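Hi team,

As requested, here is the filled-out complex form for the iron/sulfur cluster run. I kept the field names the same as last time so the parser does not choke. Let me know if anything looks off before we queue the next batch.

— J.
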Amino acid sequence: MRTDAPGSPRGGPAGLYVHVPFCASKCPYCGFFSVAGTPPVEATRFVDALTREAALHRDRFGAFDTLYVGGGTPSVLPDDALARIAALGAGAAEATVEANPGDLDPGRLVRLRAAGFDRLSLGVQSLDDSDLRVLGRRHSAADAVRAFRDARAAGFANAGIDLIRGVPGQSSAAFIDVLDRAVALAPAHVSVYDLTVEEGTPFASRGVAPPCEDDAADLFLATSGRLVAAGYEHYEVSNFARGPTLRSRHNSRYWNRMPYLGVGPAAHSFDGARRWWNPRSVERWLAAVEAGRDPAEGGETLTPEQARLESLALGLRTLDGIDAALVGDPAALRRLHAGGLLEIVEGRVRPTVRGMLAADRLARDLA
Ligand code: SF4
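And here is what came back:
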């Protein structure tokens, strides 16, 4: 039974995020927490610990209505481990697993579908082999196309493709060509992330720079125009769905500040009021969970004013925008509206596509 007592989740059933912090090798741009090579813990023991951690929070969160298994690379785990993870979100209305195209074959995809996953997020990144080499990916463009088609054949009607824009050496025309080839596969969902060069990564030490702001802005607008013309809804700065029912329900929780439990090393959680996070260490996380302790290493509760600013910052990244009552500066609202960056529809302030491009500035100005 869900209650709204302090510290318990608010806003309906929660989502469950499972972080699988293992990758076959480390991509040179990646700042996510993941351990490359052979996982430092056996899969069975890892999933036992995930199960224990979820159980620690069972009374507080109850049943989950979305499950998202991300990483890292979840598909480095064997099928039986992934099936046990799927069972943690049994009954969820949406169960997503991220996968690397090179890890999949038709049989695996059938087993993942049978285990209960109904949404696949395929880390394609590019459909150009030279981009994939620059990004240090292990799969080829042909592997990605094959994996996507196999996923469809296995019953993943809701299969999405992730792409990276701004790969070093990639021209704008080359990216649009990749995008067109991705659209030709008719994925249910497309995510397009600008390459970011994270501190401490090989790309950063090599001095790799992302594209200049003007080029990035032109390509953002071209991406949106292309995908919208192909029938996609641009529902968040980096995300496109073939209609509202195919939006990522789980990720929409983050943008709407709805509760979710995150389990696994480095996972974050939010119960509607407080958020907390796990250690960026497999060993420290495992030691705490196996001793029956909550592994969280930090947490915070936002003041109402901090929560309002966060709602502005997150909501203005989305097509649905924010409740107009959250706006702190009505003069800025009029100015940004007149400048074509915002629309005001039925009491909601919604960014136009040019507004999405300037979402951080909108949030600052409207605060
Ligand atoms: S980008 Fe993805 S596959 Fe590459 S190291 Fe990071 S988490 Fe692993």
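Two things worth flagging: The pocket of iron/sulfur cluster is lined by residues 23, 26-27, 30, 32, 34, 71-73 (CB under 6 Å). Residues 275 and 300 are 6 Å apart (CA to CA).

Thanks,
J.
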